[in-house]
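Tip: read the tokens left to right.
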């Protein structure tokens, strides 16, 4: 890891620069195709390429986006004019990242729980992506909440995989984004979410320590502490912000450079409002930089407007820029709902 020590530190800090977040545009081919199908967009590589180009060539996007997580297909693609997407990002001042996990599969012996796969051959894949220009990576673990889950088996299996991935990334020159996502699906209360999120973070950081991951050269990508989407009592924006910050302060080392929240299926405006409240009301309590790493909460308006019609690209890009701008404001505690009307 020593070969990349300074580079890793610089990249990690740049990823969470003030007023900027990380765009999660790493949807797999299958996920992207399902979103296209809902809008009756042809599920072809060329349409996916065009959509990625729409995002990455949005004028001035780098004002609010420090980097973007790409899928394997995307990092190998180029613009219609033949410019590799990685170069487009570098020229715009955005850091290329790559999704390294190969998806969540059923965890043997644990009904209703998943474990993320992709460790086999990972060292070689990291070396290839580094040569292609990637400077950070992402690995997502999914933790479901129900009456009897998550099990300690599930937490241990996923934390171990996250830690091994992170160690290999730092060895190979990529800043690891460690993403233990506690799912919003279910009828659980915010108190139950807090309990599960806290235990998840405890197990993850225990494994990171055991695997000798340098905390100051990684980024945490957690979910917020939030009510299950089917819970009859939905926590207020202030309650989500307070409990999220409390949980993170109790379980995340101060040496971690930054926390970049996932949106986790929240409505666009709500994800922005929660991030803003974390900064505006509790930002002084946070020893790490705190920002966003959203996918649909930034991209969905642009995708809906584009709808596969390339004459719609300029307006779709304006919508993408606007959501990035709003979240950039929220990452400094400067967002208000009135800004949505702009």
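Filled-in amino acids:
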């Amino acid at each position: 890891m020593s070969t990349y020590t300074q580079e890793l530190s610089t990249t990690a800090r740049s990823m969470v620069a003030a007023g900027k977040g990380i765009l999660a545009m790493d949807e797999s081919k299958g996920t992207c195709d399902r979103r296209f199908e809902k809008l009756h967009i042809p599920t072809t590589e060329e349409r996916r390429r065009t959509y990625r180009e729409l995002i990455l060539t949005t004028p001035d996007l780098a004002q609010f986006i420090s980097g973007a997580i790409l899928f394997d297909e995307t990092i190998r693609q180029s613009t219609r004019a033949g410019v590799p997407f990685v170069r487009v990002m570098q020229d715009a001042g955005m850091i290329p990242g790559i999704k390294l996990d190969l998806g969540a599969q059923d965890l043997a012996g644990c009904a209703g729980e998943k474990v993320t796969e992709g460790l086999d051959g990972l060292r070689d894949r990291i070396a290839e992506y580094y040569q292609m220009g990637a400077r950070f990576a992402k690995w997502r673990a999914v933790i479901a909440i129900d009456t009897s889950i998550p099990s300690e088996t599930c937490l241990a299996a996923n934390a171990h995989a996250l830690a091994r991935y992170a160690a290999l990334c730092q060895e190979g020159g990529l800043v690891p984004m460690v993403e233990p996502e506690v799912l919003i699906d279910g009828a659980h209360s915010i108190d139950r979410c807090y309990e599960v999120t806290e235990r998840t973070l405890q197990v993850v950081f225990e494994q990171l320590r055991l695997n000798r991951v340098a905390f100051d050269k990684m980024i945490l990508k957690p979910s917020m502490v939030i009510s299950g989407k089917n819970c009859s009592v939905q926590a207020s924006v202030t309650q989500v912000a307070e409990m999220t910050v409390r949980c993170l302060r109790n379980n995340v080392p101060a040496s971690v450079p930054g926390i970049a929240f996932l949106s986790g299926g929240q409505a666009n405006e709500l994800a922005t409002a929660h991030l803003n409240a974390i900064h505006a009301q509790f930002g002084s309590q946070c020893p790490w930089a705190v920002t966003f790493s959203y996918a649909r909460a930034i991209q969905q308006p642009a995708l809906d407007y584009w709808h596969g019609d390339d004459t719609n690209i300029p307006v779709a890009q304006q919508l993408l820029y606007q959501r990035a701008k709003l979240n950039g404001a929220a990452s400094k505690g400067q967002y208000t709902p009135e800004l949505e009307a702009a």
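The chain has a mean pLDDT of 96. DSSP finds twelve helices and ten strands in the chain.
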